[in-house]
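Why predict the complex rather than its parts? Because the way molecules touch one another can change local conformation, and only a joint prediction can capture that. The input here totals 158 residues.
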Amino acid sequence: MKARVTVTLKNGVLDPQGKAIQHALSSLGFDGVDDVRQGKLIELELQGRDREQAKADLVAMCEKLLANTVIENYSIELV
Amino acid sequence: MKARVTVTLKNGVLDPQGKAIQHALSSLGFDGVDDVRQGKLIELELQGRDREQAKADLVAMCEKLLANTVIENYSIELV
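Output of the joint prediction:
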């Protein structure tokens, strides 16, 4: 089973990487960009066919390792 | 207008960061993970309302800056 976890910074948390991308885009001539935020995308290939179990496992993985829940949000999607 | 760009490594390109995550998950007791690939998620806030123009701009941004098209794929989604 394929799963896709996206980890994004919470609103209000500074994102220097996003700002760097925004400035780089601007210096390349892309002026109409108001804001850029960079997050992480983690694609996992899971064994087993129990979707509920997989979701529970993924939440635990995010809480323990994949996301820093103090400053990051995560969302889980089973494909 | 909000846009979401995902940048992932092409198949066959080694992903040491993904492997590191997989090993860390395994050492935390998550055994049913066959593979992990890490990608990037870039969320942009764009000016203007012309969706076709926005898509064309985003393709240009990906080709010029956001993705290394030798080793990475990108996909664009307007929200």
